[in-house]
Amino acid sequence: MLAISRTGWLVVAITVVLFGSGALFAADAGASSPDPVEFDDTVQVGLSLEDQYALEEDVRLPRAQVFYSKYSYVVGYQGVERFVDDHQQTTHTERFGYPLAVYVSDYSAVDVELREDGYPVADENPPWIDAETAWFVTGGDARSPAGETVLAFADRDDATAFADRSGGEVHTWDDVLESDFEIDDAEVVRDRLDDRLAEADDTGTQAESLRDRPVSTVVGEDAETIQDAVDDAPANTTVVVPEGRYEEQIELDKPLTLAGEGDVTIAGPGWGTVVTATADRTAVTGLEITGVGDETSGVDGVPDHAPEERGDGWDDELTTHYTGGDAGIAITEGADSLVADVTIRTPSTGVLLHDSPETVVRNVTVEGNEVSSDGRAGINAIYSAAVIEDSTIRDGRDGIYTHESQEIVIRNNTLDGNRLGVHLMHTSDAVVAGNEFREQDTTGIYVMTGPERIAIVENTIRDTEVGIIPDSDDAYVASNIVEGNDVGIRQNTAASLIEHNVIAGNIVGVEERSVLPTNRIVHNDFVGNYDHVRSSGGPLRIWSHDGVGNYWQGATMLSSIGEHPPSYSPTDTVDERLHLTDGTAMIARAPALQAASGLEGMVPGLRTGAVTDSTPACEPNNPDLLERTAWAEQAWTCAQ
């Protein structure tokens, strides 16, 4: 059973409030049990925008909507199993309170069938039913983009008939609440990280083998021009370009390795793309490329993000916009390719990958425009699950830009003076690891359009307007140094794990904007920020878990010598100044303020928009990372 019975439900009246560009319903304690609302008016979690956009019109995925005793908005879960997994988390009740009402999609009211891929289809959306009165089919063939899913039925016979067809079992709501479901959450992203990096190593090894092809043609000996040598060379061989300057545009339409030997420059005419490849297993190595055209897009006026409603052909038009401009090297439909040891000077794009998965871009230098708002991207990956590594990108509009390049790995690159460093659009399951960002105009790492399962680890972001914007559900943000920025992390994720980061010397360490208090933020170090945290309106956010919190410069002033400090709130008017102003520690220990703080902790309505850490650490959690910043000496301990 739910923790609060139907007869014990609080009164909930529904009022509409504005949030961003859409209307959300806020639950307010008051009368009888609430009626379900439109799903679009809930705070949603559990499915990326890209997965939702990709669904065909007749797909009717199971949903749940939940009213909570301590949470202002109605939460919409894309999948009953997602609610159950969240409900079982140890701090769920602490953050949300008790479920006052849970409604689920009723498939007894529609004619539902499963497609070959397991997606449920029906002529119309199923209506809502109280979860406590429903019958659920689990363990069968039903699937959503996130994996196994659970269907609910008002009638037990309907549930039994569906289970007979789909191979599942029929359960009550109490049974479902005790069930275990495999959810690809942030902990799974963390646990898979080593494997993901090892897979990238394997992809790199395969790409490097393209350097070992036998030489078939040498420019200047066997052919007069590079293009003549390419045309004459058999597939799966190497065309060698000796030292010199070549004023050409090259097209590779078969699997070849184009290898510069010595100081080789290919100079285009100042318009168009210089090297174009349209074959799998193409390699371009050892070149400097200049004379790239300045056309940055193929379609004028198309935005850099998806509109809320996509019409027919929208993605084709957007792809043309991204891929239709000029580039130093463009690989289209060229899977398993390699671009390595190349320098490109470009007013538009450096390397363009379009529909070219498993391609490796390694040790590439891209020099863009002095005005970073011009141009396109140093490396532009469209539908390309590539490995981009060990490269340097300067003065680009976007250093590395991706669109629908799921599972891309971006690691160990240096991005300097771009508008945006790494810009992920509609790209789930990406890994951004070990990169160094310096002086980006606006943002170091910007994750947009609501993807899922992004890993942002071991990066260093300095001297930028905003260090990281991880706008992704189930993200894993860990072991990053975020130093000297206007805002270190602009936090707008859901169900994410943010741990072991050093956030130092920023004007604002974390700008907290998340509406769902579902993130686990622990083991981080906050030192030398003017404001450790600034929080927008919304729920109380608790940044501790299972007795583990974060280190806060200033929180140690609340402790007795050698003892752990009490609860600390970086958004409290007194606590937030402890690391900046003499005398605030004495004020903070005043009995009246301590009593008020305790009352606020018990009554969530008094702490709206607040962040609190109930178990702050006595000393930094990540001393080795902190020593790499200018702020290590500011990290006071309880003993001090």
UniProtKB/TrEMBL annotation:
InterPro entries the record matches: Carb-bd_sugar_hydrolysis-dom (IPR006633), N2O_reductase_NosL (IPR008719), NosD_dom (IPR007742), Para_beta_helix_rpt-2 (IPR022441), PbH1 (IPR006626), Pectin_lyas_fold (IPR012334), Pectin_lyase_fold/virulence (IPR011050), SCF-Subunits/Alg-Epimerases (IPR051550)
UniProt region (Disordered), positions on chain: 292-315
Pathway(s) per entry: Protein modification; protein ubiquitination
The entry's keywords: Repeat, Ubl conjugation pathway
Pfam family, one: NosD
SMART domains: CASH (SM00722), PbH1 (SM00710)
Residue stretches of biased makeup (Basic and acidic residues): 302-313
Domain of life: Archaea
Domain Carbohydrate-binding/sugar hydrolysis span(s) in chain numbering: 241-403
NCBIfam families: para_beta_helix
Name of the protein in its database record: NosL family protein
Organism taxonomic ancestry: Archaea, Methanobacteriati, Methanobacteriota, Stenosarchaea group, Halobacteria
